[in-house]
Amino acid sequence: MAETEFRATGVRIGRRLRSLTRAGQIRIADGRLELLTSYGREIDSAPLTQVSAVRPWYVPEDKALATVNGTRYSLTLGELDPAPGESGPPAAGRFIEAVRQATGRFRRA
Fold it and tell me: Is residue 104's pLDDT more than 70?
């Protein structure tokens, strides 16, 4: 099994106005993106060639929009591993950058 390229927990995953989970997980490994519930049950997954991720200008820094297999998901990510008493970089930006690096593509909103 290859090393995980990106992993985030405690992610709010929604589709349109419906919240699918408030504490989900995102994992990028082996050329695939997986959206999981807090219990590890798969919501959706796809090869990274069928995934796009953007952060439009009108959303806060902790949110991203991902299209997986033609289905659009809104993702609210917190901070990844901030030091005690400090705020870390927004995880949404790191997620989008991980998708871009893994696919070799650069997309703009």
Answer: yes
Cα 9 from chain centre: 10
Tokens of 46: 């796809």
The helix, strand and coil proportions of the chain, stated in percent and rounded to the nearest 5, come to: 15, 45, 40
The number of domains in the chain is 1
What's the Rg (C-alpha) of the chain? 13
Domain with 24, as residue range(s), is 6-103
- pTM, 2 dp: 0.81
Query: Residue 78 CA to chain centroid, in angstroms?
Result: 11
1 located within any domain: no
Instruction: Specify the pairing of strand 6-15 against strand 32-36.
Output: unpaired
